[in-house]
Amino acid sequence: MSLADRLAQIHTASATDNVRAIAGRHTDHLAQARGRVQQALVDILGPQLYESLGEEKELEYKVKTTIADVLDREEIPLTAADRVRIANEIADEVLGHGPIEPLLRDPEVTEIMVNGADNIFVERAGRIQPVEASFASEHHLRRVIDRIVSRIGRRVDEASPMVDARLPDGSRVNAVVPPIALDGSMLTIRKFAADPYTIDDLISFGTMTKPVADLLDACVRGRLDILISGGTGSGKTTTLNVLSSFLPDDERIVTIEDAAELQLHQQHVLRLESRPANAEGRGEITIRDLVRNALRMRPDRIVVGEVRDGAALDMLQAMNTGHDGSLTTVHANTPRDSLSRLETMVLMAGMDLPVRAIREQLASAVDLIVQISRLKDGTRRITHITEVIGMEGDIVTLQDLFTFDYKAGQDEHGRFRGTLVSTGLRPRFLERLASEGVTVEAFAAHAPVPAQRGVKR
Fold first, then answer.
1. Looking at the domain assignment, is residue 450 inside a domain?
2. Are residues 232 and 267 in the same domain?
3. Which one of 19, 138, 377, 388 is most buried, counting C-beta atoms within 10 A?
């Protein structure tokens, strides 16, 4: 949405919204000053913006300088702090996302949860806490939601009351509006760091250890198919982004996502994003459609942000037909559950396949499961590194290579002291990694294990 459209929205918004935006936080004379400055901004810049839109940065400069000029002419005496506060609030309303814009700028805030116009929570250091910020009204909140979703060509209304979107920096956005949101519109924003986390960051956070990082690096370079499993907010996408950084720079990588979040820095990356149906119910492009199309794009690697429906079947077939080294995520609480979830999603594809045939596909396609959890202390930790061995009867067999040590207990601040500990079992895939010219230092001293019947590839 252009700045001209934003100013038009402000111009058509009720005067009540303009005043209530700062109700409870400022005195009456500050509310009046803010309202007059905002109206003057519309009167001065509105016509200019419609005549010549210009560059976004140029318009931002005009808005900020005009606010400063109007404040200089304001008759009501204002302190320096009040002037800065009013200028920032108006700039945030016109150029950004209103009262949540300061929260978006705060590097300590990882998630913003708007539960109605006057009920906002944030997550800091893994803990959820309320904040004093609020929207002026339900109408004000809906304007901000519309601004976010319209930027990427999506919509949210009574006919389509739920939407997934993203901010320009890749932050994930979900919005739900009435009639299904009974207490007012709800907006959830999962922020992405300005600088994507690296493997060193995850090690420093305690998410994983150096030996596990080395193993995962080797597995990605050795073209193993890796499934990242975890619950909501556990850090699956962050982990996927970090593992994707291990992909070689000379390979053709296709990423497929509901809302583009991955931040890959390799030279040869093709990004695909699904699309919902339009108002007429046409034009929908699903993850499954994109996976099928990706197979025609000559990919060396396929990275799927999340598998959640019948696309699981196409993903497994891709892994089993020459597209080794694929990466994806799935919602599940344990490595075993992740395979059950994939099995269920394959059935959602509408293919009448025997359960054993599906499990054979799973055992042949998935090489490694990385289970990540959000613990009670708010930290995100990898709790299992699990290898998929093969089939025994009708059961897919697994073996844990690393597990989280819960027995270490908690410190005085309630944080878990445990870390990932090796189970002592030697991975069966080491011989396959060796054929790709990749070795794992932690297991390099051991002789290779001969290939066994029933083990993948």
1. no
2. yes
3. 388
pLDDT of residue 34: 66
User: Mean pLDDT across the chain, nearest whole number?
Assistant: 82
CATH number, residue 315: 3.40.50.300
Question: Is the bond leading into 179 cis (omega within 30 degrees of zero)?
Answer: yes
- Strands across the sheet with 226-230, in order? 269-273, 253-257, 301-304, 327-331, 226-230, 368-374, 380-392, 395-404, 420-422
Token code pair at residue 86: 């009013």
**Chain centre to alpha carbon of residue 206:** 20
Give the whole-angstrom CA distance, residue 151 versus residue 309. 26
| CA distances in angstroms from 251 to 106, 279, 301, listed in the order given | 36, 39, 7
The residue from 65, 95, 125 where one domain ends is 95
pLDDT(6) > 60 = no
Residue 455 lies in a domain: no
**Please, where are the H alpha helices in 107-222?**
138-150, 199-205, 210-221
* Predicted TM-score (pTM) of this structure: 0.75
Nearest of 362, 361, 360, 381 to residue 371 by alpha carbon: 381
Tokens of 403: 């597990």
The parent domain of residue 56 ranges over 1-95
- pLDDT tens digits for range 123-166: 998 889 999 888 888 988 998 898 888 887 888 888 889 988 88
